[in-house]
From TrEMBL:
GO terms for biological process: cell wall biogenesis; cell wall organization; xyloglucan biosynthetic process. Its EC number is 2.4.1.-. Belongs to the glycosyltransferase 37 family. It comes from the Eukaryota. GO terms for cellular component: Golgi cisterna membrane. May be involved in cell wall biosynthesis. This is Fucosyltransferase. Pfam families: XG_FTase. Gene3D superfamilies: 3.40.50.11340. One of its GO terms (molecular function) is galactoside 2-alpha-L-fucosyltransferase activity. It is found in: Golgi apparatus, Golgi stack membrane.
Amino acid sequence: IVNGSNDSDKPRDKLLEGLLTADFDEDSCLSRYQSSLYRKSSAYKPSEYLVSKLRSYEKLHQRCGPDTEAYKQATKNLGHDDENHANKSVGECKYIVWVAVYGLGNRILTLASVFLYALLTERVVLVDQSKDISDLFCEPFPGTSWLLPSDFPLMKQIDGYDKGYSRCYGTMLKNQTINSTSIPPHLYLHILHDSRDEDKMFFCQKDQTMINKVPWLIVKANVYFVPSLWFNPTFQTELIKLFPQKETVFYHLARYLFHPTNQVWGMVTRSYDAYLSRADETLGIQVRVFSRRAGYLQHVMNQIVACTQREKLLPGLATHESQVTNTSRSKKLKAVLVTSLYPEYSDNLKNMYWERPTSTGDIIEVYQPSGERFQQTDKKLHDQKALAEIYLLSLTDNIVTSARSTFGYVAHSLGGLKPWLLYQPTRGKTPDPPCVRAVSMEPCFLTPPTHGCGAKKRVNSAKVVPCVRHCEDLRHDGLKLF
Ligand code: GDP
């Protein structure tokens, strides 16, 4: 099945302009080379520099990954009481371990951020496999694995790493326990919503001189910290070469890294073929509700209707059966994909368009794949459904997403779409205006450092570099690239 657009006569670009390597067996991960069948041809091309950097990263990962001499060497003394002994050889490779915490949207954003940091610093990314990551995603690097071996020496301790840990970078900085002459064999980076500025500044040039020498970094993160990497001039030079179109960072990295497993891909394609492929136009609406307040459902419902009609994403309703204008014009079929933990939003929308005709005569079909009611992160099928829905949303023509939801950020950014963001309702009211069109498709860094890398604390972090601004959905907060 080919996307509804006229792309079918173009040769299929299954390697996404060289972003993907051809070195994988196709059947083991169907989504990797089939995704191009479901997407419109892309307006955003990866730079040659990014492509060459990815190919060299793949070689580095093969040289340093699990089951290599280099990995053995690097883990030999890790976690032993005497790991601090000077001149213990750790080998030629440096690593960054990504630990799975929080929901799926958070995980996808942070894994992409950690991978970009690894590209910039020539580290190898290994992912914590104690959660269901391998039921969700295929291996992204050929001839090796990105899964952290389960006998990794620090495995048992990682769960307990927090701000209070003596090797937490922010804590060491705060307590001035960093000594440039003795480099610790591992450091913990805490990049969560409750991080202190000290934790969030690990990427700054002065901090990097020490961190760069540490063989193992362990990261727990739940925020998309990519925008702040621009604050480091060395990184910035490199980033501009990698991503001449600045708002395409997550877009390219996500298409390179995240390939749903065959099980998830089956869910994506079955939904797509049954509900979206025949439509003339598709609209995704992601409804994330962070409040249990009474009446919330109705406020948000009103907001969805107000936003989609005001922005002409969906037609209004005719007041009488006979009042439909333009009857001669051929009726368009618009498919609306709704994703939410709650089925009520799509039920309401479906009823609305069944009970009354649209003013344009267009036919509206509403579909919601699941309504799981509550978040069940780390339950395999629940997470697989969540990923399938994020992916399906990314295949729509236009998208409306909820403010401050990383689930929504991943969906629109992966799709290369500038979303309409539904403001978060406050004080039990439908916000007016109900939504805002994003200026770029990049995800938002929800809890960025308050200032740049310099010592001046009064510098607004949205004013430090020209390509980074506050997020549309947070009004005067957050950071995003544009
Ligand atoms: P965020 O909390 O909105 O930033 O997004 P996360 O993805 O990090 O966490 C929310 C989690 O709740 C998801 O990972 C899912 O497990 C679940 N969830 C929230 N909204 C939906 C939805 O629309 N569909 C499905 N299937 N799950 C959802």
